[in-house]
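SAMPLE LOG
Freezer: B-3
Tube label: C17
Construct: single chain, 180 aa
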Amino acid sequence: MSTPESAAQPAPAATLEAFLADVQRRAFRFAELGLRHRDDALDAVQDAMTRMLGYRDRPPAEWSPLFWTVLRSRIIDLQRRRSFRLTWLSDARTPDGDEIDWADSGPDPSRQHDGQEAWRHLAASLRALPRRQREAFTLRVLEEFDVDTTARIMGCSAGSVKTHLFRAREALQTHLEDFR
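STRUCTURE (predicted):
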């Protein structure tokens, strides 16, 4: 017989493999949001899952926060590595081998520059946040986890998540005020 409390909390995965199978889609979405590139996101999730195999002896209650921490670190590593790549200098072909059409059907250069500038300011503001605030903002706002799930991922209380999120939003608003 299950109680309302046990129905609200999913049963912990019995094995690390079951845990990874359960988290893989959410992890991929999280990585894809952070990296904005499908292949890099797949690599990040695969690397995080591979690293988790080394932690299979840890208690199942530690797997979720540990996994999200490992995945977040891998995403940051890939973002840093990507910033040094000069992909526009590579071969001008699509992955299928077709020639790239260089005609720009996007916004005019001024609007594109404004968009890039806005992204740079937002990214810089996110990077300027303390780690816990950045994690709370990313998991709650970008990943759309609820407060309790975010608290489990971050290994803190729901009240701490709310506090970190409030402070992150306040800091972002202050940092981005000048950009408007």
